[in-house]
Amino acid sequence: MVNEQARAEMLSVLGDVREQLRMIARMQQDRARLTASASVRNKRVTVTVNADGVVVETKFGPGIDELGYGEIARAVTEAAQQAAAEVARRGSDLLAPLHDQRARLPKLTDLIEGMPDIADEVPTPMPAPLTKPDGTETDDPVSAEGGTVSADADDAQPVMLFTDVESRDHDRKPAHGVTESSW
């Protein structure tokens, strides 16, 4: 009798899990279609991002020529951040029913006697900062820390600067050793 009751409960949970998986698949498709746009500087700069917060379109409106390069760059960054925040909010709203349904499912600790509940021990991810990597407010595309890649719009070739490196004497002849050809 107890076995049949446990089996029936497990089948019910399995049915709920399958329904939740179908719901997740639908929500993932809906989320993938999400986009958000933000305009700044009196609609002179508009940026659109996809569901992952990746910029998919940037538009400059009338009067963009009244802004300097630095102000345009800051406007693009600001619009991209606003659009990314909006698409993240929409994604969270889209997933809210899933979280509600998940809360109604029994926890693993309810199904397995003596199983510790570690849900409270799972660390929550920290949000990434919206500041430059080096924390400064300069318009210099290459940070003082080195290793930063920047692209100049004129030549579109990446420029890499490394400051924590060892130098090598390229003119020095190799010493005979394990790399010698007769070895």
Secondary structure category = alpha+beta
How large a portion of the residues is in β-strands, by DSSP E? 5-15%
User: Helix fraction?
Assistant: 25-40%
Average pLDDT figure: 79
Q: What spatial form do the alpha-carbon principal axes imply?
A: flat
Q: What's the Cα radius of gyration? A: 27 Å
Largest sheet: 3 strands, antiparallel
Assembly type of the chains comes to: single chain
Number of continuous helical runs: 3
Low-confidence spans: 138-155
Q: How do the strands of the widest beta sheet line up side by side?
A: 1-2-3
Number of DSSP E strands: 5
- Span of the ends, CA to CA: 77 Å
N-to-C SSE series? HEEEHHEE
Structural notes for this entry:
This protein is α+β, with helices and mostly antiparallel strands and 183 residues long. The longest helix is centred in the middle third of the chain and has 36 residues, at 69-104. The chain has helices spanning 2-32, 69-104, 108-111, and strands at residues 35-40, 45-50, 55-60, 149-151, 158-160. Helix content is 39%, strand content 13%. Helix 1 (2-32) packs antiparallel against helix 2 (69-104). The model is unreliable at 138-155 (pLDDT under 50).
Keyword list:
three-stranded antiparallel sheet, single chain, 5 strands, 183 residues, two-stranded antiparallel ribbon, alpha+beta
Short description:
39% of the residues lie in helices and 13% in strands. It is built from three helices and five strands.
